[in-house]
Design brief:
The complex is a heterodimer. By secondary structure, chain A is α+β, with helices and mostly antiparallel strands. Chain A is built from 2 helices and 5 strands. Chain A has a 5-stranded mixed sheet with strand order 2-1-5-3-4. In chain A, a hairpin with a 2-residue loop joins strand 3 and strand 4. Chain B has one domain: Rossmann fold, CATH 3.40.50.720. Chain B has 11 helices and 8 strands. Chain B has an 8-stranded mixed sheet with strand order 3-2-1-4-5-6-7-8, with helices on both faces. In chain B, helix 4 packs parallel to helix 5 and helix 4 packs parallel to helix 10. The chains are: A alpha+beta, B alpha/beta.
Chain lengths: 75, 263
């Protein structure tokens, strides 16, 4: 699964995109993500699946695309 | 009605079939509040004044600093130390004397936000911190005002129009529908800490101004129901769909009402 990383999260992850296994659903992906990058716990960010922000816990497949979206303070 | 000078001044816009004379008159009669006269606010102020927005309010408590000039292109070197909001309206008067301006040389706070925002039709969030962004969101939700959000981080920008009622009467999402929680601590990053390329707020601020012009004239589609992420290093635009969280918005309105009753 392709993971797109935006804003300050790129500094934490060290890249703007990477691949991760889909796991079963978004909750399990979130757990895997925080295990792989524990520092992400310190940041507020939202998750979009296939370019749509999700509130629920959808099932995920390898062809899905995830985006990690932090808010941008600067102006 | 536009006078002869205005018709000539705006002739290139009036020629556009999406604007015409009616759109230009709507611009003249509009009231736009720009909160933050920094990186995003400077280009927005210039383009909206040039386009003929009739009434522009500017909120900023800050003074021009040497380190601002790399991106806040409304100001000159000899403006250093002067009030941004005051200098901005001086520049507007030079650019387009038809524009009526109002200066709010103060920090937007819970005490003054409702009074200031209630005087305007459209609000622009050109601020540089999360606390003010949430304040603008909450006051605009309670007062039913649309606001154009711009945010920047190093080489990336975000854009959306929040709390916008479409031509079909459907209300769009708010800032809290995308980012529900107030941020704190490590998240309080603004340009003064993280650095920013000067052209980026120029690009995003002009895009914000464009959304304001579209809302006023009815041209095109207002950028509501989605958030745009722009990467200036790769020139990739990513669009993320977002939904309005009616439950959270109703709760926010109820809380606001409860506060008024308590007072």
């Amino acid at each position: 699964m392709k993971i797109l990383v935006f804003g300050v999260l790129q500094d934490v992850v060290g890249k703007s995109e990477f691949e991760m296994e889909a796991g079963s659903d978004l909750d399990s992906f979130r757990k895997d993500l925080l295990q792989a990058y524990p520092l992400l716990k310190n940041y507020q960010f939202q998750i979009a699946v296939n370019k749509e922000k999700v509130e629920s816990n959808p099932g995920l497949i390898e062809s899905d695309e995830i985006a990690l979206l932090p808010p941008y303070a600067g102006g | 009605m536009l006078n002869k000078e205005e018709i000539t001044r705006y002739s290139k816009q009036i020629q556009l079939s999406e604007i015409k004379m009616t759109g230009q008159e709507n611009l003249k009669n509009s009231r736009v509040l720009i909160i933050g006269a920094g990186g995003l606010g400077c280009p927005a102020i210039q383009y909206l004044a040039a386009a003929g927005v009739g009434n522009i309010g500017i909120v900023d408590f800050d003074k021009v600093d040497l380190s601002n000039l790399q991106r806040q292109v409304l100001y000159n070197t000899d403006d250093i130390g002067k009030s941004k909001a005051v200098i901005a309206v001086v520049k507007i008067a030079l650019l387009n004397p038809n524009v009526q301006t109002e200066v709010f040389n103060e920090r937007l706070s819970a005490d003054n936000a409702s009074l200031i925002i209630s005087k305007y039709d459209i609000v622009m969030d050109c601020t540089d911190n999360f606390a003010t962004r949430y304040l603008i969101n909450d006051v605009c939700v309670v007062l039913d005002k649309p606001f154009v959000y711009g945010g920047i981080h190093t080489f990336e920008g975000q854009l959306s129009v929040f709390n916008y009622k479409s031509k079909e009467g459907i209300m769009g999402p708010t800032y809290r529908c995308v980012f529900p929680e107030s941020s704190s601590g490590e998240l309080m990053i603004n340009c003064s800490i993280s650095g920013v390329i000067g052209t980026l707020p120029g690009i995003i601020g002009v895009m914000q101004a464009q959304e304001v012009i579209k809302m006023i004239t009815g041209a095109g589609n207002v950028y509501s129901g989605k958030i745009l992420l722009y990467n200036s290093l790769s020139n990739i635009f990513t669009e993320i769909k977002i939904k309005r969280n009616e439950e959270a918005i109703n709760l926010l309105k109820l809380n606001a009402l409860a506060n008024i009753i308590t007072i």
